[in-house]
Amino acid sequence: MKSGMGHFHWADGSAYEGEFLNNDIHGVGVYHWGDGRRFEGQWITNRMHGQGLFTWTDGRSYDGNYANDQKEGHGAFRWPDGRRYEGQWKNGKQHGTGMYTTAQGEKRMGEWEEGKRLQWTDGLTAP
Q1: pTM of the full structure
Q2: Euclidean distance between CA atoms 112 and 66, whole angstroms
Q3: DSSP state, 91?
Q4: Contact 25, 34 (CB under 8 A)
Q5: How far apart (Å, rounded) are the C-alpha atoms in residues 1 and 76?
Q6: Under 8 Å CB-to-CB from 112, ≥6 apart: which residues?
Q7: Cα 21 off chain centre by
Q8: What digits encode the pLDDT tens for the residues 13-54?
Q9: How many CB atoms are closer than 10 A to CB 101?
């Protein structure tokens, strides 16, 4: 039974290094998927839960809170072209208020629901 610090490799090329509890990934650690994705952060019973940084091989990243493997609470998502959303998340989607930054660096405050922007809330007119 794995408990404490350790590492484990799966046949599909995935690997984990960090804390275990009763054979579960539990605590702080780094998981590498076989396809190159990576998560460094907090885990509870084999699920991303708490603060963490998830990166994709195409340059996307999310730095923020997770609950049960889903983006939840506050976090920042970055695209490789420079776009960025920083704000509230629920069930893995933008939900609540957030700041959207365009690839050119222009910033807009807005309100999102289930991943869709409802409105800009900063009083500026849309381009």
Answers
A1: 0.93
A2: 18
A3: T
A4: no
A5: 36
A6: 87, 88, 93, 94, 95, 96, 97, 98, 118
A7: 23
A8: 999 999 999 999 999 999 999 999 999 999 999 999 999 999
A9: 17
